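To the wet lab folks,

You asked to see what we're planning to order before we commit. Fair enough. Below is the target structure as tokens, and below that is the sequence we designed to fit it. If anything looks off to you, flag it before the synthesis order goes out.
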């Protein structure tokens, strides 16, 4: 099963509460305060890994809850910190924060407020001090700022929290709560027996949408049966399923093309795109997210016009569907490739295409018979290298 979008609830561990205790020992009837501190709660950390290629793990484990810190103990013993939860996700995972369901309004009772113990100000504040026995929940806004630098087409999924593209890249999704201080921290010369300690902070939590957008250099788009998978298999070691019926490919496939100087390019073959895909015709167009990061696109046309289709109409609908998904896709360099040139009607169709659609250079190939593939390899490399140089110049 290929999972590229999944909703996840994540909650970091709560901090353990501080302890209120007093030292007891023979012949020392009034030993000082000895309550230990609570341990910190565990974080939820995402780590990008190139060993994974989809979000299946999160599909089976959609609730991520990290360990809470242990409460402090007597005899000055601190509680253990909760273990961090490290979640591996494939490279190319974006995380969106979903709006959480409205929290119930806190009950305000004036009488209770009046009786509530007065908070003691301390330097480490941010958290109210509680008297022993009473625990008051502390609402803290520890939400992380989104990474504003990510220049990606952002559909209305909430706010973008992170984008993990490099192997080993980490991001703390939810921060564990700090452990509360034990009462021994509050002893002063005038208050030698403090009967209060701090509660632990709650860990941050939230509902998130994990979205995978594969990271490849070149994306191949085309109508079903145009020969996208045949082309990928011909120029790389990928072995996608190839069959003469539409929608053979249901999930994106990645292949690696290697050049004599060991330069490698990754190609992504996505399912077939057809007119009306934006209205969910065929497999819809959601899978186009996997070509959103590609540096260049290949538009593959079936020049033989199988099933009485006209290649020029296919071209127009493909451009239209790409634009409807994200106009930024059309700003990428693209190569239009005419496939199945070995078949009889292809030559005539090619002439017709050039007459009907001007100023669109075409590269004729036959993926099944290995014709025109060296030129194809060369063209995609040039496109990618130009795109890389342009991106470098833009950054400088
Ligand atoms: N004659 C000829 N047939 C080809 C060529 N390329 C692909 N085909 C045939 O076209 C059919 C479809 O090929 P696929 O590679 O599965 O097409 P696809 O674009 O990946 O199709 P979907 O995965 O359904 O979107 C297969 O029967 C291939 O053998 C070609 O260059 N010449
Ligand atoms: Mg295919």
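Sequence we intend to order:
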């Amino acid at each position: 099963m290929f999972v590229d979008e999944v909703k996840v609830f994540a909650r970091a561990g709560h901090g353990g509460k501080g302890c209120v205790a007093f030292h007891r020992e023979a012949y020392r009837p009034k030993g000082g305060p000895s309550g230990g501190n609570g341990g910190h709660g565990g974080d939820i950390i995402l780590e990008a890994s190139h060993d994974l290629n989809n979000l299946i793990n999160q599909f089976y484990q959609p609730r991520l809850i990290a360990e809470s810190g242990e409460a402090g103990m007597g005899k000055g013993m601190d509680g253990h910190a909760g273990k961090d939860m490290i979640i591996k996700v494939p490279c190319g995972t974006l995380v969106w924060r979903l709006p959480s369901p409205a929290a119930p309004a806190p009950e305000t009772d004036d009488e209770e407020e009046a009786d509530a113990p007065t908070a003691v100000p301390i330097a480490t504040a941010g958290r109210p001090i509680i008297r022993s026995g009473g625990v008051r929940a502390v609402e803290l806004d520890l939400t992380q700022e989104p990474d504003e630098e990510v220049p990606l087409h952002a559909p209305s999924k909430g706010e973008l929290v992170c984008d993990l593209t490099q192997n080993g890249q980490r991001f703390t999704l939810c921060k564990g709560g700090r452990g509360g201080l034990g009462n021994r921290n509050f002893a002063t010369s005038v208050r030698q027996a403090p009967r209060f300690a701090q509660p632990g902070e709650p860990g941050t939590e939230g509902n998130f949408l994990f979205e995978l957008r594969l990271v490849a250099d070149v994306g191949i788009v085309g109508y079903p049966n145009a020969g996208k998978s045949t082309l990928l298999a011909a120029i790389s070691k990928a072995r996608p399923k190839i069959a003469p019926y539409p929608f053979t490919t249901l999930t994106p496939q990645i292949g690696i093309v290697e050049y004599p100087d060991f330069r490698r390019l990754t190609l992504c073959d996505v399912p077939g795109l057809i007119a009306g895909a934006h209205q969910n015709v065929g497999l819809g167009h959601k899978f186009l997210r996997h070509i959103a990061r590609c540096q260049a696109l290949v538009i593959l046309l079936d020049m033989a016009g199988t099933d009485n289709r006209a290649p020029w109409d296919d071209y127009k609908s493909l451009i239209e569907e790409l634009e409807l998904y994200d106009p930024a896709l059309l700003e990428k360099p693209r190569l239009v490739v005419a496939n199945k040139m070995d078949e009889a009607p292809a030559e005539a169709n090619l002439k017709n295409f050039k007459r009907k659609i001007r100023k669109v250079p075409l590269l004729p190939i036959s993926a099944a018979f290995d014709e025109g593939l060296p030129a194809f390899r060369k063209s995609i490399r040039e496109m990618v290298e130009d795109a890389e140089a342009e991106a470098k110049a833009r950054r400088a």
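Structural context that might help your review: Residues 108-155 have pLDDT under 50 and may be disordered. Residues 228-229, 240, 248-249 surround magnesium ion (ligand 2) (CB under 6 Å).

Thanks,
Computational group
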